Amino acid sequence: MEDLITIPKTQIIMAFVATCIESTARMLHTSYHEVYQRMKRVGMIENYIVPYYETLHSESRENIASGMVECLKRWEENNE
């Protein structure tokens, strides 16, 4: 039997975070870097995406991206 490669959960979560950022950037027609900076500025990565990984990762990519866009805009409005 072939040996399976195991990936630490933190790496899996970070890959999911990257996917969230990329999908959101695509939906907003902007760069990955800009979306990352915006999410970082409002604390969305460490206070939303990472803690709610288990719930979020079960959604479709389209649902995740639209939810991320909505969440990002709301968090930015609250931080003004």
Walk me through what this model shows.
- The model has no long low-confidence stretch (mean pLDDT 93).
- The chain has helices at 9-28, 32-42, 44-49, 53-56, 61-78.
- The chain contains five helices and no strands.
- Helix 1 packs across helix 2 (32-42) and helix 1 (9-28) crosses helix 5 (61-78).
- By secondary structure, the protein is an all-alpha fold.
- The longest helix has 20 residues, at 9-28.
Q: What are the SSEs and their pairings?
A:
Blueprint: H1 9-28, H2 32-42, H3 44-49, H4 53-56, H5 61-78
Helix pairs in contact: 1-2, 1-5
Q: Short description, anyone?
A:
It is built from five helices and no strands.
Largest sheet: none
Put simply, the count of helices is 5
Low-confidence runs (pLDDT<50, min 5 residues)? none
- Based on CA atoms alone, the radius of gyration comes out at 14 Å
Q: Which series of helices and strands comes N to C?
A: HHHHH
Q: Mean pLDDT, rounded to whole units? A: 93
Shape: elongated
Tell how many strands the DSSP assignment holds. 0
Beta-strand residue fraction: under 5%
Please report the distance between the alpha carbons of the first and last residues.
Answer: 56 Å
Structural class, by secondary structure, is: mainly alpha
Helix content estimate: over 70%
